[in-house]
Amino acid sequence: MSEVLAPRLPRKVKLLYGLGSIAIGAKSTMLGMILFYYSQVVGLRPDLVGLALGISLFVDAFWDPLIGQFSDNLRTRWGRRHPLMYASAIPIAISFWALFNPPAGLSDMELFSYLLGLILTVRFFTSFYEVPSTALAPELAPDYHDRTVVLSYRWLFGALGTGITSVLAYGWFFRPTPDYPIGQLNPAGYGPLSTTIAAVLIVTILISALGTHHRIPQFHQPTQRNPSLMETLREIGSTLKNWNFGVSVTAGLIYGMAIGLYSGLALYFATYFWELPASNVLVLAIAQLISAPIAASVGPALSRRWGKRRACMTMFFAGVILTGLPIFLRLIGFFPENGSPWLVPILTVDRLLSGILNTGGFIVVSSMIADITEESQLKTGRRSEGLLQSADSILQKSVSGLSALLPGLILAFIDFPTRAQPGTVPQETLQMLGWIYLPATVTLSVLSISTWRFYRIDQAAHERNLAGVREQTAAAEARIEATDIVPDRAPT
Fold first, then answer.
1. pLDDT, the chain, mean
2. Which domains does the chain have, with CATH numbers?
3. How far from 484 is each of 451, 478, 479, 480, CA to CA, in Å?
């Protein structure tokens, strides 16, 4: 019955929809290099870099729901989502390029202001694409399991964007030179890399938007009205007053603290803790890339077998263990030394397996958050995908913004040198870094995963919500016909 009421999305549309996430993966990978680039390559104090990152994430958290609410209620001949997606492509690319090409000769405070202004701009225009694009998923795939498959394409292409960026960076632009045997410390590589990635952003965003453009007539069209500010705030409040939404927000809030630490310090661990040259970092990036298509199959398969909640929690718990295990074993003295022929193969296998588990878990969680759309519509009478998807990130990004300060503060606390060469950082400094980082990230991750235990939407509940929405829509159309008002379009 569910397949009749909610037909599967054609594979071509899934591919084109997912393709836009190459831009998100590429952008996120490059932003993950910001702390390293500005502190170790440009020479800005790490606490100032962390402050800029923290402020940008905190501010980003608050305009996402505004963009989501605006998108939910936008009425144009190109629908609710596509105008914003088209408008985002060129501004993202320009501001992204400028972020990695700071002018020479700036003081620390001038450089801090430049960094803050550009990263705010990048995040703002990224939200113009990412919020509407993410909000398309529930309408593209109403079916409980097909929705997970559609979002697996999104995560697959996001990982491809990460892989493309990593291959270009560590396989080409960060190649070692006599002056810079560790290529990621070479300032000459970042400008050409940012130019290339900026072009990737424009192309993939536009292709994805064009590839889903023909579906616009089938999407929901909101009622034309002009609510007051108080009415709008009441609508936002009633939409967000949802148990399952609260679970997702709480889990995201806790996870945001962990991801802030991980994102800021990942390249530090690769360069100084493991002392990996760019070629070895490339190997790990390729392992991460290979894990994505496997995860895109494993995530939906386990979701179908076990249900979404059990599947995501199982994959996440296993992923946390594998992600932290190499650092823990090194800290207690049971791991190959740097330079050992076993080091990179072990790290590669670990990266492959943890990538499959973590990515698979995120695919399923994305589908769980999308399932809140119909439950919310049944209770409020409004489709609010943009608000739900973006508001879910408000606390997560707020906390991530605060925790983005932590990597810089940790580096300052342990007196980690700027413009340091691998092998010159004191061993006790690296040990202290590991013992601060590992317990914090593992504890936060476990708490976040455990929160999903309280999520209540399973397949049966989702089917009931879909049926209720259809009945609600049919009743509304009958009332409209009775009063000779032209009906709004609604999803199947």
1. 84
2. 20-216+243-457 (1.20.1250.20)
3. 48, 10, 9, 6
